[in-house]
Design goal:
Elements: H1 7-16, H2 19-24, E1 30-32, E2 35-38, E3 50-53, E4 58-61, E5 67-68, H3 70-77, H4 82-92, H5 113-130, H6 134-142, H7 147-153, E6 156-158, H8 164-169, H9 173-181, E7 185-187, E8 193-195, E9 200-206, E10 212-219, E11 227-229, E12 242-243, H10 245-250, E13 257-261, H11 264-272, E14 278-281, H12 288-297, E15 300-306, H13 309-322, E16 331-337, H14 343-350, H15 352-360, E17 363-364, H16 365-376, H17 382-396, H18 402-416, H19 444-454, H20 476-488, H21 494-499, H22 507-515, H23 525-554, H24 559-573
Parallel strand pairs: 13-14, 13-15, 15-16
Antiparallel strand pairs: 1-2, 2-3, 3-4, 4-5, 6-9, 7-8, 9-10, 10-11, 12-14, 16-17
Helix pairs in contact: 3-4, 11-14, 12-13, 14-15, 17-18, 19-20, 19-22, 19-23, 23-24
């Protein structure tokens, strides 16, 4: 099992990558003073607001706020996960991505090229079998699937055989072990090996690059379970993958919307009718990772569920998963189908245009959120209004979009009969999850951090003051951590520095500070930084003096503390 990508490798990769060259190959840039500009690739605009800094190896759009380093750009523009972006940058430089053995914390499991090759071979075998078994071909014909759709989704058939894949792909113990680890085969208590999928229509599950990572199988007869997914493997993680996403992306350069349905056949049947933007979760509820992935590819997601209790429950779980991903510019809607219908049956019954009309009339997230809560709570009573107020506030606090939060809070205030101005977000146990999007207030500490981030060479003139590590001052540990990184690695750029905090809570504020317009002339930067640092030191010394004064009132100071107290008094009197 592979572990984390070593930090020095990420530093080296960013050092080798010229962000201007990287972006210019994808979005033509124009020189504008020290920077380069273009129309932003992440939102529509007529005049350029997208800026790339060669000095900081950082990009920022003043229109939509998109920003980051080379890794961030590859994740956003090429729509990749973090590890995939690292791998793509490594390919550009003809480098192999190393992995640390036994890493603690979050690990990224990497499949070998041979793993993907075996999965593709299995998919090819299943596809060959489809035409060799009349009962499978008859089922496909009954479902009205054309040869083009079958080919597009790589649909196949696993015959009612114990060892089809074992015979063709499992020659040798190493290969048999690999098939078992990839869950193409199974083993019983006696060690007997047999094919995992038997007598099922097979749907290859592809990752965002089109590689087969798992399978879904639909039983032909009355067997159970009706649908069977590959178990989790080093390639396949059902909470992150979406069936049909790769195929949906092949139909257009940039997806405008995605439709979330419940099953493989729903996705395939909709595509057969010319609706090519449907995806399905893989035997699990719609997760936050699913929502994050979809909003990375498009700005509009429609969740389509049955209108029964199970469908409504699934929709509510999807809404809750979506809340932390509701950024400005994205849209989430819901469609509930008539009783007894699913997308497959309904699109065949009423046709493409009528089905699309249902999507156009989808219920906005705000309507569904309050409709659901009002069904649970009686707002005719004060207790019901209070419960609605608390529950809705907790949920709204999770939303990063200021626009969404404001509009939902306005609606909530109207429902409970309170004025909007009376309504702070309290958030209860979820209060810490609230993301308040507002202009960052620049305190002396943030000014020092911002200048150090933007001009890493300032770490050499910043005094080394280990006693400040004990100061009860917000931001002090962060300032000292940045200095420590830069003293150990003076060559680090702004982009490389930020990468150290990507997975940490401080990343958002550091990203904002890296973009802050300090309006300090270049020749005055060092003095400005030192003056700011001295004001932080003075604040610490004032805290220390007050602490000693309080202690002196409660108990006797030690000899050393008395000496320190006298020195601090003299220092402040001399100012």
């Amino acid at each position: 099992m592979a572990g984390q990508i070593p930090r020095p490798f990420i530093d080296d990769l960013l050092a080798r990558t010229d962000i201007v060259e990287l972006i210019d190959l994808r979005v033509p840039l124009k020189k504008a003073g020290k920077n380069h500009t273009a129309c932003c690739p992440f939102h529509n605009e007529k005049s350029p607001s997208f800026t790339v800094s060669a000095e900081k190896q950082f990009y920022h759009c003043f229109g939509c706020g998109a920003h980051g380093n080379a890794i961030s750009f590859m994740m956003a523009f090429e729509q990749l996960e973090f590890v995939e972006a690292i791998e793509e940058l490594a390919k550009i430089h003809h480098l192999e991505v190393p992995r640390e053995a036994g890493s603690k914390g979050k690990t990224y499991v990497q499949g070998s090229a041979d793993d993907y090759s075996q999965m593709q071979k299995a998919a090819h075998i299943y596809q060959q079998q489809l035409n060799l078994h009349p009962q499978a071909a008859a089922y496909i014909a009954k479902r009205g699937l054309s040869a083009a759709t079958i080919h597009k989704y790589g649909i196949g058939y696993a015959p009612d055989s114990w060892d089809l894949l074992l015979k063709q792909l499992g020659q040798g113990k190493n290969y048999r072990d690999q098939l078992f680890e990839l869950k193409l085969t199974n083993r019983n208590e006696n060690g007997r090996e047999y094919d995992f999928f038997r007598d099922r229509i097979m749907f290859p599950i592809r990752d965002k690059r089109g590689r087969v990572i798992g399978f879904g199988g639909r039983v032909l007869g009355d067997g159970t379970p009706k649908y069977l997914n590959s178990p989790e493997t080093r390639l396949f993680h059902k909470g992150r993958e979406l069936y049909g996403l790769y195929e949906a992306r092949q139909n257009q350069d940039r997806l405008e919307q995605l439709l979330v349905v419940e099953g493989y056949m729903d996705v395939v049947a909709l595509s057969e009718q010319g609706i090519h933007f449907a995806v399905a979760c893989l035997g699990t509820a719609t997760t936050s990772e699913h929502m994050q992935t979809m909003f990375r590819f498009c700005s509009k997601v429609i969740c389509c569920y049955d209108g029964d209790r199970a469908g409504r429950d699934a929709a509510w779980r999807a809404l809750q998963s979506a809340l932390p991903n509701l950024k400005d510019g994205v849209e989430l809607n819901f469609v509930f189908l008539p009783d007894g219908e699913d997308p497959d049956s309904l699109v065949q019954k009423e046709g493409k245009d009528a089905f699309l009309a249902r999507l156009n009339d989808a219920m906005p997230l705000s309507n569904y959120l309050f409709e659901h809560l009002l069904q649970e709570l009686d707002v005719n009573s004060d207790a019901g209004k209070s419960a609605l107020w608390a529950k809705a506030n907790d949920m709204i606090a999770l939303i990063p979009s200021e626009f969404y939060r404001d509009s939902l809070l306005e609606r909530l205030a109207n429902l409970v009969g309170r004025k909007r101005t009376e309504q702070p977000i309290t958030g209860g146990k979820n209060r810490k999850a609230a993301v308040v999007v507002q202009k960052t207030k620049i305190t002396p500490m943030r000014r020092a951090i911002a200048l150090l981030l933007q001009y890493p060479s300032l770490a050499q003139v910043m005094p080394v003051a280990p006693e400040l590590a004990q100061a009860n001052m917000p931001g002090m540990p962060l300032l000292m951590a940045i200095q420590q990184h830069l003293l150990e690695k003076p060559q680090l750029t702004t982009a490389q520095l930020l990468e150290y905090w990507r997975e940490l809570p401080e990343y958002n504020i550091l990203s904002k500070l890296a973009l802050w317009d300090h309006q300090v002339a270049e020749e005055q930067l060092t003095q400005e930084f030192l003056d700011t640092f001295r004001s932080i030191e003075d604040q610490y010394l004032q805290q220390r003096l007050e602490s000693l004064q309080r202690k002196d009132q409660l108990s006797k100071l030690t000899v050393a503390e008395k000496h320190e107290y006298v020195m601090l008094l003299k220092a402040f009197k001399s100012k």
